[in-house]
Amino acid sequence: MKTRVIYATMTRHSKKLAEAIAKNLNVGAENIKGGPILDDVDLLFLVGGIYGGQSLPALLDFVGQLDSRNVKRAALITSCASKRQGQQALRSLLEEKGIDVLGEVICQGSFLLMGFGHPNQSDVHEIVRFARSLAEEVGAIL
C-alpha cells in the first residue's frame, strides 16, 4: 500500500510534524509548494495549520485538485494555537470528492505567546502515534 505525507506551512510547525510522521512510516514528507503528484495513494496524511481561524488557502487549493481515483483515504494532522479548531473546510472538501477521511488529530500549535514552545516533543510523539496506529490499521505500513 502506498502512503504519502503532504504538508503546507507558514510557521514550520506542520513541516516538523510531517517530517516526524514520514520518518516513522519510512516515507518522505513533501511540501505542497513542490507540487507533488499523487497517484495510486492508499493513505494520504495532510498536515496543516489553522491561521486566523481558517485552513491555509494553499492547502485547500491543493486538495481541490485531488482525484478520488488517485487518493483513496486521508487523515488530517492539524496544528492550532487553541488546540480546539480542526480542518473542517479541508475535511468537507475531501468528502465532497469521495475521499474517505479516517480521522484528525489536533496538535497544540503556537502564535505569539499563545502555546509558546509548541509543538513540543510530547505533541510530536502524540501525532506520530496517531499516524502509525492509523497506518497499521489500514495496512499502509511499508
Number of helices: 4
CATH topology: Rossmann fold
The separation of the N and C termini measures: 7 Å
Give the overall silhouette: globular
Poorly predicted runs are none
CATH architectural category: 3-Layer(aba) Sandwich
Number of domains: 1
Description of the structure:
The protein is α/β, with parallel strands linked by helices and 142 residues long. It has one domain (3-137): Flavodoxin domain (Rossmann fold). The protein has four helices and six strands, in the order βαβββαβαβα. α1 crosses α4 (121-137) and α2 (57-64) runs parallel beside α3 (88-96).
Would you summarize the structure shown here?
This protein has 4 helices and 6 strands; from the N terminus they run βαβββαβαβα. It has 142 residues and is α/β, with parallel strands linked by helices.
Keywords:
142 residues; 6-stranded mixed sheet; 4 helices; 6 strands; alpha/beta
Topology readout:
Layout: E1 3-7, H1 13-25, E2 29-31, E3 41-51, E4 54-55, H2 57-64, E5 71-80, H3 88-96, E6 100-108, H4 121-137
Parallel strand pairs: 1-2, 1-3, 3-5, 5-6
Antiparallel strand pairs: 3-4
